[in-house]
Design goal:
- This protein is of the alpha/beta class and about 260 residues long.
- It has 8 helices and 7 strands; from the N terminus they run βαβαβαβαβαβαααβ.
- Strands 3-2-1-4-5-6-7 form a 7-stranded parallel sheet, with helices on both faces.
- β4, α4 and β5 form a beta-alpha-beta unit.
- α4 packs parallel to α5 and α6 packs across α7.
- The longest helix is centred in the middle third of the chain and has 29 residues.
- The mean pLDDT is about 95.
Length: about 260
């Protein structure tokens, strides 16, 4: 399918690996030029070079901490006119409610709620003036069904979801859509870290921890960054203009909901 977005310009955050990389690859395959942001310069540069080699699009890489005001200003200055925004930041560490202090909550809010809001606030006026734009926020299945050990993520990402619910309906008339993609467990560094934590806690191997978690997913496996990226690219396409303010689970059926 021709997504109809060749020649558009996308800012993809956390795009050097994992789900962000999957989104950047899928958009580049559709002919979108990419501004790629992540914190680690070496991995980011390799990712940018690989995307250029595979897809022949323009890729600008910028290593910066997008969760800070300074990083946001730097990235937005380099990005310029952006048609597509994909927000993405690593989730806070797992734990239990008694572990966390106010500072822990503030860090989670900065990364997983306030940073996406700041980027949307900066880029929405230009998209609306041009009459077209696509924003996809990578959040988590936990906004539909909270995960007990991920309370920091549950709180911050649910706040972002509330912001998007109202804002998406205010900007849709200008040709701009905002939607959230809610990943379940995918084969990323985050999943490896969570499996390692579970293995240590239960005295089992990391492979066993993964096998146990896969057994809880109706699809019987972890998702891949590639298939996640394709879903993101469709939401950013010309064909998705009537999808507004939605929270779309990509979790292999793991979240047990009727609707």
């Amino acid at each position: 399918m021709d997504l109809g977005i060749r020649g558009k310009r996308a800012l993809v955050c956390g795009g050097s690996k994992g789900l962000g990389r999957g989104c950047a690859e899928a958009l580049a395959a559709a002919g979108v030029d990419i501004v790629l942001n992540a914190r680690g310069a070496d991995v980011l540069e390799r990712a940018g070079a690989q995307i250029i080699a595979r897809h022949g699009v323009t890729v600008i890489t910028l290593a910066a901490d997008i969760t800070t005001p300074e990083g946001q200003a730097e990235v937005l200055d380099v990005a310029g006119k952006v048609d597509i925004l994909v927000t993405n930041a690593g989730g806070p560490p797992p734990g239990v409610w008694s572990d966390w202090t106010r500072d822990d909550y503030i860090r989670a809010l900065d990364a997983n709620m306030l940073t996406p809001i700041a980027l949307m606030t900066a880029l929405l006026p230009g998209m609306m003036a041009r009459g077209w734009g696509r924003i996809v926020n990578i959040t988590s299945q936990s906004v539909r069904a909270p995960l007990a050990t991920l309370g920091l993520s549950n709180a911050a990402r649910t706040g972002l979801t509330g912001f998007v619910a109202g804002t998406a309906r205010q900007v849709a008339g200008s040709g701009v859509t905002i939607n959230n993609l809610l990943p379940g467990t995918h084969a990323t560094d985050r999943a490896v870290a969570l499996d390692a934590n579970k293995a240590r806690a239960e005295g089992i191997s990391a492979d066993e921890a993964r096998a146990r978690r896969e057994a809880t997913i109706p699809a019987g496996r972890y998702g891949t960054p590639e298939e996640f990226g394709q879903a993101c690219a469709f939401l950013c396409s010309q064909h998705a203009g009537f999808i507004v303010g939605q929270n779309i689970l990509i979790d292999g059926g793991a979240t047990n909901l009727t609707m």
